[in-house]
Write a structure and sequence with these properties.
The chain is built from three helices and seven strands. With about 160 residues, the chain is α/β, with parallel strands linked by helices. The chain has one domain: P-loop containing nucleotide triphosphate hydrolases (Rossmann fold), CATH 3.40.50.300. Helix 1 crosses helix 2. The longest helix has 13 residues.
C-alpha cells in the first residue's frame, strides 16, 4: 500500500498499543465539517466514514478509540450480527452510528436514511466495499493493513476536499 502523505491524505504506521496516540493525531480530520455550497444554508449532514481492511486488521478497535475520543463513554463492539450500534456523545453535534456490512451484499436503507437525521453526526461503516454504491457517498476512507501482533499501517483519505 502506498502510504505517501498528500493533500487530503494522512498515513501512519503503528503497533496496537500506540493506537490512542494515532487516533488523537488524526482526530482533526474527522472533526472538520463538510464545506457548504455557496447558497447552502442548512448544516451539512453526518460525516460518512468507510473503514476497510482484512479481518483482524483493527477496524473495530480503531472505531472504539475514535468513538471514545469523540466523547462517548458507551461500550463499543463490532455490530457484525446486529448490523448497527448507536453511540451517544456530548462532544460532537450528535450520535455516532456504527455499521458493519461484512455479512451483507448491500447497505440497508436505514443506513442511507440516517444521513437525513439531524441528530446523527457520524456514520462509521465497516466493510463499505460490500456495497459499491456507498463509494460515492463516503466523506472519509480509512484503510488498515496488518493483523495480529504485527505493525499496522493506517491510511486516511478525506474525500470532502477533492
Amino acid at each position: 500500500m502506498d502510504c505517501t502523505e498528500e493533500q487530503g491524505k494522512v498515513c501512519d504506521s503503528f503497533v496496537q498499543s500506540e493506537l490512542p496516540a494515532v487516533v488523537k493525531r488524526v482526530l482533526p480530520v474527522f472533526l472538520q465539517t463538510r464545506p457548504l455550497a455557496p447558497r447552502e444554508s442548512v448544516s451539512p449532514g453526518p460525516v460518512l466514514v468507510g473503514l476497510s481492511g482484512e479481518l483482524g486488521s483493527g477496524k473495530t478497535t480503531f472505531i472504539r478509540e475514535l468513538v471514545h475520543q469523540l466523547g462517548s463513554r458507551d461500550p463499543v463492539s463490532s455490530p457484525t450480527y446486529t448490523l448497527q450500534h448507536i453511540y451517544s456523545t456530548d462532544l460532537t453535534r450528535g450520535e455516532i452510528h456504527h455499521w458493519d456490512l461484512y455479512r451483507l451484499g448491500a447497505a440497508p436503507p436505514e443506513l442511507f436514511e440516517a444521513r437525513e437525521e439531524p441528530e446523527v453526526a457520524f456514520i462509521l461503516i465497516e466493510w463499505p466495499e460490500r456495497d459499491p454504491v456507498l463509494k460515492g457517498y463516503l466523506d472519509i476512507t480509512v484503510h488498515l493493513t496488518g493483523a495480529g501482533d504485527s505493525p499496522r499501517t493506517l491510511s486516511i483519505t478525506d474525500l470532502r476536499h477533492q
